[in-house]
Amino acid sequence: MNLKTTLSALALSAALLGALPLAPGQARAEGGTISGGFDVGPGGFQGNFNPLAATSGFTWLVTYFEPLVIYDDKLTKVIGALADSYEVSADQKTYTFKLTEAKWHDGQPFTARDVRFTLDLARNDKAGSVFAARLGVVQSVEAPDDRTVVITLSAPSPSMLDTLTKVMMLPEHALAPIPPEQIAKHAWWSTTPIGTGPFKFTKYVADQYVELAANQDYHGGKPAADKLINRYFADPAAAIAALRSGEIQFTYVDSNDVSTFSGDSAFRVIEGDSYVVNYVGFNQEVPLWQDLRIRQAFMYAINRDAIIQSLYGGAAKPANCVYVADQLVPQGIESYGYDPEKAKQLLAEAGWDKINGDKPVTILTYYTSPLATNVLAAMQAMLAQVGINIVPRAVDTPTYNSIVYQQSGNSGDYPLIYAGLQNGPDASNINIGLNEKQIPPAGANIMRIRMAAVTEALDAALAETDDAKRDARYQDVCKATNAELPWATMWVANRYGVVSSKLKDFVWTPAPAGGPYQAHAEKWSIAE
């Protein structure tokens, strides 16, 4: 643990541990403080409390903001959150939501006007919304009464409900006075935000922690805990040390940390599919990657099976396209087995020596854990064997986002990236990183990929209204990404969290981008 983290822990320990301890084994029926490293994950502190612009951290944000609909904790179906119920018309172009009775944290009623305001803001790319392109099919949002919202689409969009699980509802009365172009980075998000969730925002100490207090008027019932505190750490090792010392009760861990907790009755290990495909991304505005043979060489040069076994402990599946789910991967695609000699041959045919040779090429990443460092070191050594010299550059998530989402400047700042993107539970999620229509500021196609075959396959899949045909459509996406290699797809790894056995009724799901999903934070309690 570094000095900054140690000093922070000492200064905060009294506040973080909550009320006076109880007798051994005595449960606390209600009250107390629950602390966790809720944002300590593959990308670390995501540094953005605006849910319309955030790319991760929803496990935490959903404790004080809420969407209309949300995934259940198994990520198998979409259920109501701020919507008591919803209906989809036969032509799949009209969505009608009946809203629950809820209040904002300042006591104002939550109404259909807030939903209309939020969706209009989310569709506005001037507001810095990452949902602008995904909601482009929305033709209108109507509020016929305070408890009813009608969303009309210009064309059917089977992925609409999945998108709406990520759009947190926002208060019109608080945000309407702020011009849309000033909202994305406004101080409101980290000083006085209000939501409808089970906990209220009370304090943010920069780069150290966020504190929430119980929302006594929560529509889902009075929370069992008095406070939630989200701690931020310089690295995952510091979070693990805080968990073991009792300073926090939950944190994300890498697969190579799991064995230190297994069999320890003081902790519970949670494991699940991350639904995130890790990849090496080729910036298509950099001439180095125009020849397909060079992109293919990356696939053949990296021994993915060896990395999975030696570094991930076998807890990952190699990805030969953007998917690994059996129903989405067709027979006959190229497996890109480890073949360094073939990689050398392809590079020679493409004239790599003249294009770049052994000049160093930066690979940018927001993955800063020891596991990620080792993975990149392994890739670096394997690529060096075939004549490609990559140099890893790891930065924090806010810095990473400021680089890759830049609208102008030198694209050579990030010729390569090592990153991950959600490819489930709905297969449509991958679209934002590959479709030409999603190039920033519209979406997250940060590699500026303009590949007709990939975009056409994605568009066809997104428009497929017949559930029986959707998997086949996404198999076409798999074929296109396997053949064109907009990314060198690596693997989909399992994700792990460790929770103290003192927490009761605690739900954490290894969800992509940190959720959101139904966690019922109002039920979480802590025993001393």
UniProtKB/TrEMBL annotation:
Gene3D superfamilies: Dipeptide-binding Protein, Domain 1, Dipeptide-binding Protein, Domain 3, Periplasmic binding protein-like II. Pfam families: SBP_bac_5 (PF00496). Residues 77-426 form the Solute-binding protein family domain. Transmembrane segments: none annotated. InterPro entries: Peptide/Ni-bd, SBP_5, SBP_5_dom. It is found in: Periplasm. Residues 1-29 form the signal peptide. Keywords: Signal. Belongs to the bacterial solute-binding protein 5 family. This is ABC transporter substrate-binding protein.
